[in-house]
Amino acid sequence: MTRRPGPGAVPRRTVLVTGASSGIGAAVADSLHADGRWRLLLSGRDGERLAAVAERTGGEAIRADLAAEGGCEHLAGEAVARAGRVDALVAGAGIGWAGPFVTMPPEQIDRVLTVNLTSTLRLVRLMLPPMVARGTGRLVLIGSMAGWVGVGDEAVYSASKGALLTFADSLRRELAGTRVRVSVVSPGAVDTPFFARRGTPYHRRRPRPVSAERVARGVREALVRGRENVLVPGWLALPARLHGAAPGLFGAVADRADPHRGA
């Protein structure tokens, strides 16, 4: 049963979190539940894991496959049907693939781009118009440091996350003058099942993986303050700037941090 705010209480805003069945998405659900100011709509493909996250956070589970035909439309429609309105979207669904691009199966190229990029854009397209009409809203996209600098053996994953940064930048210009804010939270390596599911373990010496809970704190900051770009951990802003200013130097430093590269 959904709790109603008591007399004098500030009504909770509704946030839709995708990829909420595990990893960063589940940590975001835990963090926002602890915050207490949010009604949680939680989406994921794994119904059993999603139900467990929803139970411990008091959220409402909406099982959806965003890569399937009509998956985004189903999720958006169900979210509005349940809550009446969605005040914020945390687009956390994502998959990876690692290996040389020349060996990547074409169907995997399509799947990574569909889950990480196309489904996010389609969901934003569905969620955004009511936010603009109301004059308020939050869009938080889960990016990656790989979108800022590119990572060897993760070319398509990096491309999908880099495209999110450019999409967000463009969208901010279109939304200038509104109170709808667009944020991208870009973590480095995160200690989640992500690497096991993609079939290749994380092998770089730097940066060391951070916890999903740490990324979730960055997401909450983006939701509350509307910060445009949040890098987790914060020191990753330095290599991001170095890459932009001196890509050759950055590449040499990055190769030294990767035991599988450089000579």
Overall structural class, as computed from helix and strand content, comes to alpha/beta
- Beta strands, count: 9
H-E string: EHEHEHEHEHHEEHEHEHH
| Order of adjacent strands in the largest pleated sheet | 3-2-1-4-5-6-9
Strand proportion, as a percent range, falls in 15-25%
Largest sheet: 7 strands, parallel
List segments where confidence is low: pLDDT < 50 over at least 5 consecutive residues: 1-8, 245-253, 259-263
Radius of gyration: 18 Å
Helix content: 40-55%
The N- and C-terminal alpha carbons lie at a distance of 60 Å
The 3D shape can be described as globular
The helix count comes to 10
* Average pLDDT taken over every residue: 87
Protein name: SDR family NAD(P)-dependent oxidoreductase
Organism: Streptomyces fungicidicus
Note down, in words, how this protein is organized.
This is SDR family NAD(P)-dependent oxidoreductase. By secondary structure, the protein is α/β, with parallel strands linked by helices. The chain has 10 helices and 9 strands. It has helices at residues 23-35, 47-57, 71-83, 106-134, 145-149, 155-174, 194-198, 212-225, 237-245, 247-257; strands spanning 13-17, 38-44, 60-63, 88-91, 137-142, 180-187, 190-191, 210-211, 229-232. Strand 2, helix 2 (47-57) and strand 3 (60-63) form a beta-alpha-beta unit. Helix 1 (23-35) packs parallel to helix 2 and helix 9 packs across helix 10 (247-257). It is globular, with a radius of gyration of 18 Å.
